[in-house]
Amino acid sequence: MIGPTSLLKFFSRRRLRRLAGEDSAAVQQRALLALLRRAAETRFGQDHGFAAIDSVETFQAKVPLRRFEDFWNGYWKQDFPLLTGASWPGQIPFFAKTSGTTSGTSKYIPVTEGILDGNRRAILDLMAFHLAAKPDSRVLGGHTFMLGGSTSLEALAPGVSAGDMSGISALGVPRWAKLFYYPSLEIAQIPDWERKMSILAEDSPKRDIRMIGGTTSWLLLFLENLAAAKPGGLAKVYPNLEMIVYGGVGFKPYHSQFEQLLKGMTADLREVYPASEGFLAVADRGVGEGLRLQCDGGLFFEFVPVEDLDKSNPRRHWLATAEIGVNYALVLSNPAGAFAYILGDTLRFVSLAPPRILITGRTATALSAFGEHLIEDEIQTAVAEAADALSLAVQDFSVGPVFPHAGEPRGHHIYVVEFEGGQPEQVTTDAFAHALDRALCRLNDDYRDHRSGDLQMKSPEVLAAPPGHFFTWMKERGKLGGQNKVPRVINDPALLDSLVASFRRVVH
Question: Is residue 253 reached through a cis peptide bond, with omega within 30 degrees of 0 on the bond before it?
């Protein structure tokens, strides 16, 4: 009898052969034209002359860039939640309810069966890349554990629901895959994150877990707590673990902890890049080597140099014109009615054939209060380097600007850092701040120039938070678990004040 893993290997080999011969630019142009044909009779399609668009260049000339707020106010808000024919044909059945890491404002992002189809294709690609790297894997020999938010959805109108993207995606899991899916619906629908984690910590070690996935920071916290509670560590908790799937936040600050956690194990680490607007990319190589774009997943990608994003006539690249090494803002069009939509993430290419990217941060979270122009990837790299230099491990961190004030004409950056194993001595914290500063000066010329001689910016301030500090802060804000992420760069003064104030309450 042919087992599920054998069938998966057969389909994976076929898929990898197809990907090897893929003309990514041609695939992308076909994807765009197919989206335009589907949406030609919608209000948005008629407003922008979709029926007459026959090339990428014409599309870029006729359809300006928009953010979520532009779509919401111009096309979606008026008829919400019964959104029919506004920018996509038919009724939108789902809305992913989400809020950004720097804002508490909820957004309702349209999700259709086309989005779920792309998600399923991406998961199969993830499996194919895993099996190519680990041909002896029996990843479907046990359970696939998804550590996500509540799968319970809210009914907004007949035939229309909203909730976490993890809950919407769970509805789209193929019937055959549900045989391997964990946790049960009863556990998955628990809205209380702490209660759910407690139940999963008790129940999951009784299962044959072969794959586990979730947002990087929450996943690490869950696994570390499990490993610490059992002699022999994670290898004893999940002895048959084949793959850990992570994403949502940058991996660099957590890499060393994952390596420590997986000592003595052969589990494959695979990064993914999912969003409510579509599944964008999957790691086809090792950690840090980039993610391969899902060119045939129903999405069309554009890439705008970050410095052009707010210009009246920004340069808009696509796979036929993109360049390696440029920091781009990602723009996409999808089968849910988003066209030339600024996603909010930034990336750079490490390869164009095939198209492989590294995520560098968020368009709204560059740190440039004083003209230093630091991107999130540079900050995360510097934090990881400073921690490695001092044999420290960072559990979580956030950074924001402290502006000049009476008696102090220079500004600086303040980092709240939670180190694994507790608060280090002040001398160690100071050494970490110094190493962080040196790394940022090496990585970014603008930062180095502003720090020169302490004339324009003071050295960074580091507050070493006690264990569990970010968990408590996120809980106080109602942002525990699931798709909620600790904000790396905080440009909102009120949000930064709340984090620093929570630190000072605990420490003093």
Answer: no
